[in-house]
Amino acid sequence: MDVMAKHYAKSAGFSKDNNPFLYYFPFPQIVSVAAFSFYPQFFSNGTYGAGGVPNYKSIMSIIGAEYDEKTQEFKYVPERWPENWYRRDTQYGAVQALSDGFLQIYPRNIIVPGVAQVGTGKLTVQTVLCDVYQGLNSITPLALGGTEENVAKGVSWALSVLDPILSKTALGCPDNVISPNFLFPHSQQEGGPVNPPKVPSDAWTGDNVYNKVYFGGKNAPTNPTCSHSS
Questions:
Q1: Residue 182's pLDDT is what?
Q2: What's the pLDDT score for residue 7?
Q3: 197 to each of 141, 187, 200, 202, how far by Cα in Å?
Q4: How far apart are CA 203 and CA 222, in angstroms?
Q5: pLDDT of residue 9
């Protein structure tokens, strides 16, 4: 847990130092903080010890990573359960994960929810307005994206009259940090968040069998086949 706490502290510090528009609201905060306690506790090898033993061998192969001594970097390997690995004997649930996360992990480098720039040199009118916009955006249904975009643009124009730094942005928030990104330049294109792709009328007919797409039609099955009679 101490290792994971140090890792969290370094990651959080890097984000605060390099991302002035850091997005950190309650739900993603809960998920991200709990994950740091979840890995060592849930993936620990119960073969050694009642609560389980979390170490490199018991965790890395599960998440598909392997340390290369020559390059001193991690590389991808197919995920698999380690040999002689069994789940821990004692239960570990969501309440414990959250308790460990917020008592042992989060205090190492606190990021203030809603205004992640507090405590850094990046707390400005622009970043605060961006935080407000992203907070509203995070709870807005996707169907209202177009309306929200127009309102944000209108408000941004009004603010830009007072302060040029807010021109052509959504409450001071650059387009490329909006989540779920309604103001992304291509959001209105087919397949974007406010314009789903069109589904052909014959999408589920013809050579499309078993939910697969066949090209050419030569090898496509014409009828479903079953190994057992119904």
A1: 45
A2: 92
A3: 18, 12, 10, 15
A4: 16
A5: 95
- First-to-last alpha carbon distance for the chain, in angstroms, is 53
Count of Cβ atoms closer than 10 Å to residue 130 Cβ: 25
The token duo for 147 is 């309306």
User: DSSP letters along 135-193, please?
Assistant: HHHHTS-GGGHHHHHHHHHHHHHHHHHH-GGGTTSBTTB-GGG-SS-TTSTTTTSTTBT
Q: What is the pLDDT of residue 4?
A: 92
> Under DSSP, is residue 86 helix (H, G, I), strand (E, B) or coil?
coil
How far apart (Å, rounded) are the C-alpha atoms in residues 150 and 175?
13
Torsion of CA 26, 3, 104, 39, to 10 degrees: 60
| 74 contact partners, CB below 8 Å, separation of at least 6 | 60, 65, 66, 67, 68
Residue 181: partners with Cβ closer than 8 Å, 6 or more residues away: 175, 187, 193
The number of residues in the chain equals 230
pLDDT at 10: 92
CA 182 – CA 175 distance, rounded (Å) = 8
Kindly give the parts of the chain with pLDDT less than 50: 179-184, 202-218, 229-230
Specify the 3-state DSSP secondary structure of 84: coil
pTM for this structure? 0.64
Beta carbons of 122 and 20 less than 8 angstroms apart: yes
Instruction: Report pLDDT for 209.
Output: 46
Q: C-alpha distances in angstroms, 46 versus 36, 93, 220?
A: 19, 16, 47
Q: How many helices (H) and strands (E) does the chain have?
A: 6, 2
Instruction: Give residue 224's pLDDT.
Output: 52
